[in-house]
Amino acid sequence: MTIHALKVIQYVQNSSIRHLRVNMSECFDEALALALNDLKYTDGKPVAHPLVSRFIKLFWGYRNKDIYNLTWIERQRLDDTLLELREIFSRPLCKKAFHNAMRGNKRNHESLVQYMDKLFECHAKLLIVRLDIHYAESISNDITFDKAVKDRTDYINAVKRKYNHLVSYIWKMECGRKRGIHHHLIFIFNGHKVQSDITLCRQLGEDWKSMSDEPRTYYNCNADKHKYEYWKSYGIGKVTYNDSDKRYVLKDKVISYLTKNDEEMLALTPLGCRVVGKSQLPATKQLGGRRREY
């Protein structure tokens, strides 16, 4: 499912019962027609966005219908289904499910903040590399959730094999209007072993492009230091244990951006799948004892 189902849901939630029907407006009809067409390319299973899951379940039988050429009976049934969807959205259980789904970003943020703190207990100096990987606009709309997951997994495995001083990594799947499904990545290196974060990020980006013949693109966030400093959000590059200011920006800006809500991505994500992930922490025994100062 895509933005079209979310548009229909917004119309349903904001329209009165008296006006909610097919032909309510040209924009609504267009969104509904596109959302029903999208159903043809799904398997009908629930997704991580609870409201979109309700939409899929109720409108699955209309996936082959052309709303511009309905019989009177078909139009009445579709109108009734829209009203049923509105009634479902008003139920406390449905509201709670939506609220819980939107709270996922807070849980992810808290988890990643704790994760970074533990990494700094292992390493007094880390090199934070922030990279966005995506596909060229010519193919971005054709990239499925499963393909994006496989490509990310293959890429991260290749990075782990190539870069010996990689300590950890964090990833976030996102869906944009132009980029389609893409990934925000943070690669975390041992700052005593690796320097030149801009060059390293460029190498990582070129690795992503070279792994396939399809047109791929990337964005080197570390190369835009001045922009992020202007926004007071430069929490990447070299970060030391004792640099409380930069560590705060890393948590409050960088990680917060990675864990922001993305309804479009939730609408595309199969139920039970993740949109944020990270590597495992070093072995517990490495976390104990006196903090290293070098």
From TrEMBL:
Superkingdom assignment: Bacteria
Ranges where the YagK/YfjJ C-terminal domain occurs: 121-262
InterPro entries linked to this entry: HMG_box_dom_sf, YagK_YfjJ_C
The protein's name in its UniProt record: Inovirus-type Gp2 protein
Species annotation: Plesiomonas shigelloides
